[in-house]
Amino acid sequence: MRTKETTSQKAIQQQVAWAAPVLGLVLLLLLPVFARYNDYVLQVFTHALLLATLALAWNILGVSGSISLGHAAFFGAGAYTSALLSLDLGLSPWATIPLGGVLAAGIAAIMGLFCLRLRGAYFALATLAFVEIPKVITDNWDGLTRGSLGLVGLPGLPSLRVGSYHFDISSSLVGSYYFVLGYGLVLLVLVALIFRSNLG
Predict the structure, then answer these.
(1) Which of 26, 28, 100, 182 would you call most buried, defined as having the most Cβ atoms within 10 angstroms of its Cβ?
(2) Model-level pTM?
(3) CA 107, CA 81: separation in Å to the nearest integer?
(4) How many CB atoms lie within 10 A of CB 44?
(5) Rounded CA gap, 152 and 111, in Å?
């Protein structure tokens, strides 16, 4: 009798484990419909989803038991690279965003050569140092990063055209929301595949 109850409980738990993410995804997809008259809600959720994608990187490293405080530096390096290439060279953001990601990955690889030999608090402090170094550079290198004033006049993402469908991202909060949501889902799938692989 107890075995049947245990089997039934496991079946219910498995159903809930599948149903909860699906329900959450449906709600996220329908959010712009519910909040079509409230731009603030869309802005908050767009930023929250963007930060959630950043948190996925911590999830990967957290499985190893290491605490990294350097992810903000990689995020910033990629963002500045993309922005500067668009502003100074006039390249499309669709081209500069992947280039920014490549540079950020290169910086992370260099940091890994120094930090992955450390453990515990020493690893966390070493990654923290890698955050402070680029922060000082960006705050004081006015000729490149415009210092504390930041970069202004950044071009928005060009519209996407798929057949007769026109997907405007930069001038539409709804477009920005769905773009970040799609980006986050792709990263979530990649993280899940990593965890299921031999590397994970």
Answers:
(1) 100
(2) 0.72
(3) 12
(4) 12
(5) 29
* Alpha carbon distance 188, 190 (integer Å): 5
**For the chain, what are the domain ranges?**
29-65+157-200, 67-155
Q: What six digits make up the tokens of 46?
A: 């767009």
- How many Å apart are CA 144 and CA 21, to the nearest integer? 43
Contact 103, 77 (CB under 8 A): yes
Structure confidence by residue, pLDDT tens digits, 127-168:
888 888 878 888 888 777 777 777 777 777 777 776 666 666
How many other CB atoms are found less than 10 A from the CB of residue 84? Answer: 18
Q: Which residue type, as a one-letter code, is found at position 26?
A: V
- What whole-number distance in Å separates Cα of residue 103 and Cα of residue 141? 19
